[in-house]
Amino acid sequence: MSDYQLDCQRLLCPLPVIRTQNKVKELAVGDTLCVVCTDPGTKNDIPAWARIHGHSLVSIEDKEDLIYIVVRVGA
Question: How many domains does the chain have?
Fold first, then answer.
């Protein structure tokens, strides 16, 4: 289970990435954020963003038309 959840359903890229970036700024190193999306592009975009910014991808799961992307906040 993640520490925090961010609802990005029905948003198209780049909005889920932008909202993820803004939310991560509020979190502490080591916290986990589950981003709930419907745009299939987020399965590539959010992990790429996380890698570039020093965060780590914990998991990506497709379940019932939703995409759950869990990111651990890095330094």
Answer: 1
Among residues 8, 13, 34, 37, the one annotated as catalytic is 13
> What CA–CA distance (Å, rounded) separates 29 from 37?
23
- Residue 26 lies in domain: 4-72
Residue 13 annotated to the active site: yes
Q: What's the CATH number where 12 sits?
A: 3.30.110.40
Give the tens place of pLDDT for each residue, 7-61: 999 999 999 999 999 999 999 999 999 999 999 999 999 999 999 999 999 999 9
Question: In terms of C-beta density within 10 A (0-12 exposed, 13-18 middle, 19 or more buried), how is residue 25 classed?
Answer: exposed
